[in-house]
Amino acid sequence: MFVVFRVTEPEKGYFKARKQIKNVLNQPAVIHRKDGVLPFSEVEIIKGKRGIVWDGVEEKCGRYSSRIIAPKSIHLPDNFKRFSPSAIRANLVFNTAKKAIGKAAAEPDSFCITVTDRNALSAAKICSILPLCSCVRVVTARADRYAESVDNALNSFGATLIIRSEYEPVSKPDIVICCDGVTSAAMSESAVFSYKKRSFGKLRFYGSGITLTPEHSELLPDDIEALDFAGAITELCGCQDYAESCFSSVETSCEKCVSPSTESCLLCHIRSADQ
């Protein structure tokens, strides 16, 4: 469970504003429920002349004061802590890269895929990219969490999943899926997918944003970032609505393609090795 802050601006006029502040302070948290998913709560807060009126807000949040989704524009007091999603970013990078590689439809033995996943957040999904490429490597600090995937790759696909502790360049064109956001200078000749703008790579893809379900879009305040909310409801409430989601926007550093789609830039990167 987590808490979403909905910020309300006061009405004009002293008495109207004062009455509205009183009503907001007396308003209990609203609990949103969905079948099969843990609930989350919404707490309305109001912005007075001296900023947010925090009286009683912590009490409404209860034990979830450390799991707050709030507008980036407001400063939270020390007794509150923003929830920062991590697993959903790894998932979005993986899904976005997988979709692009699938659309590019390059020969499976013409390139390599490297997944950097130091905390093994993508171990359960790794075998889904095996049909796309004959060489799949994983850079991780948790090789133990990949043991089942290694067995599954061999038994179900007849493929060898290569596990490494550090990234090393390969002779083939390499597509690096940075699920952990960590890149290195050794990737300077690779095509790199990441959720961080500053990354290494000859060809770089930066993913951002997510499209919410109509139900969640209707509930969410306009000033809350969709990715923060999707991450919270996925990681804290067990919602599976975004399990296969991709980034809603992907920027590329490619300057060669006339009409640069992600898949056309990938094909350009792979084929350039033969030129």
Structure description:
The chain is built from seven helices and twelve strands. It has helices at 14-26, 57-61, 87-104, 147-157, 214-219, 226-235, 262-271; strands spanning 3-8, 30-34, 37-48, 51-52, 68-69, 112-116, 136-139, 161-164, 174-178, 191-194, 203-208, 249-252. Helix 4 links the parallel strand 7 (136-139) and strand 8. Strands 8-7-6-9-10-11-12 form a seven-stranded mixed beta sheet. The protein starts with a strand and ends with a helix. Helix 3 packs across helix 7. The chain is α/β, with parallel strands linked by helices and 275 residues long. Helices cover 27% and strands 21% of the residues.
The tally of helices reads 7
Largest sheet: 7 strands, mixed
Order of helices and strands: EHEEEHEHEEHEEEEHHEH
Q: Rounded to an integer, what's the Rg over CA atoms?
A: 23 Å
Q: State the shape.
A: elongated
Strand order of the largest sheet: 8-7-6-9-10-11-12
* Distance, first to last CA: 54 Å
Write down how many β-strands occur, each being a DSSP E stretch of 2 or more residues: 12
- The pLDDT mean sits at 91
* Helix percent band: 25-40%
Quaternary form: single chain
β-strand percent reads 15-25%
Which class best fits the helix and strand makeup?
alpha/beta
Low-pLDDT segments: none
How do the helices and strands line up, and which of them pair or pack?
Elements (H helix, E strand, L loop, with lengths): L2 E6 L5 H13 L3 E5 L2 E12 L2 E2 L4 H5 L6 E2 L17 H18 L7 E5 L19 E4 L7 H11 L3 E4 L9 E5 L12 E4 L8 E6 L5 H6 L6 H10 L13 E4 L9 H10 L4
Parallel strand pairs: 1-3, 1-5, 6-7, 6-9, 7-8, 9-10, 10-11
Antiparallel strand pairs: 2-3, 3-4, 11-12
